[in-house]
Amino acid sequence: MLAVLESLRRRAVAEGLPVYLVGGPVRDALLHVPVKDLDFVLEGAAPALAGELANELGGFLTVHPRFGTATVEVQGDRVDIVTARKEAYPFPGSLPEVSPSSLEADLARRDFSINAMALPLSVDEPLVIDFHGGVRDLEDQTIRTLHPGSFTDDPTRMLRAVRYQQRLGFELAESTAAELKGALAGGHVSAVTGDRWRQELQRIFEEDRAAGMLLQAIDLGVLPAIHPALSDGQHLMRLAEESGVASEPANHLAALAASLSPADGDSASRRLNLPGPWARVVRDTIAVRGILAEITPSPAGHPVQPSTVCRLLNGMDLHVITAMTRFWPDPQVVGQLEKYLAEWMQITPELTGGDLLAMGVPRGPGLGEALRELAAAKQDGLAATVEAERDLVKQIISRGS
Ligand code: CTP
User: What pTM, to 2 d.p., does this model score?
Assistant: First the structure.
């Protein structure tokens, strides 16, 4: 990324190129937190400049002509260069119509003041360009929109607001909170496609404080406006209590799904146009929840055989089972799920299908059944040695004849 920055700076100084570092990296540099990505704006055609950079640095170029944006990928790092543009939203929640414009207009189209600052690359000791009070809002720890119609234009900014607020420990400005409520009441959330909501959710799932962000999105009414069933935060609350534990995106999706009915799970998956593996997390979370009573010891203390747990959980998404160990409130359930993951599911017979055939088990469905019976016996501690396995196979053969 630094190679791109240096090359751009050289060009900016030598040719007076009006190119600026913008948005997230300026915000993060001012906050003294690590800068993740570099985003640049050019007052001029960004794809052409990006092409020259890709050539110079041996990088890979991707151009999105509709928005006049380009990405240069150098040794696995991606840098975005966009043509300064202004945006008009033909209707709330639509994708904007864009036309080339000035840096000033480009900053004015952005979501929050803290994301609407720029740094010119063409001067040696640049001053932050800040038309919207971003520096002041960083100091005041405030998330503030640039204009009252911001959430109506782009309702996905509701989730972005929550994401920045929790990530940075900031507050929403009073006016911004009121605008968010107004845009919610105006029903604009439903105008946005599932794909766009899912992308914002995905960005939340990748954050350290994802659970807190989702809880707040529920409290504010944003998630319930996307789909009414996404309104229960009880499992997220437990994830939010965990600190210092790296969390998997699937944990949060499972925590959201764990109190849904199967029908709500399906319709929420459709609303968010979830891709196959995500939809499976939702489905399997609901399915596992449905069998929890069968895999836990009864109140009278009757144990459940490990083979029963294996049979019921076999084939369920392991991300889901792992996720449920993190947020399910009943320690007995968690204990069974943990034992399944760490021990029981790994137990397989030492004898193979070939061994069973050699011992005289006929080829066909009976062979699979015999292997499963063997595995179940082993899981329940009834066939600890190969000899014990062989004895069991002999019993199966004599039973079958
Ligand atoms: N942006 C916006 N409205 C959106 C999405 C993005 O105004 N719905 C603007 C913001 O100014 C943001 C910039 O586009 O700073 C780049 O977007 P993104 O990559 O999502 O944000 P970053 O700040 O670069 O990254 P992050 O928020 O994760 O730190």
Answer: 0.91
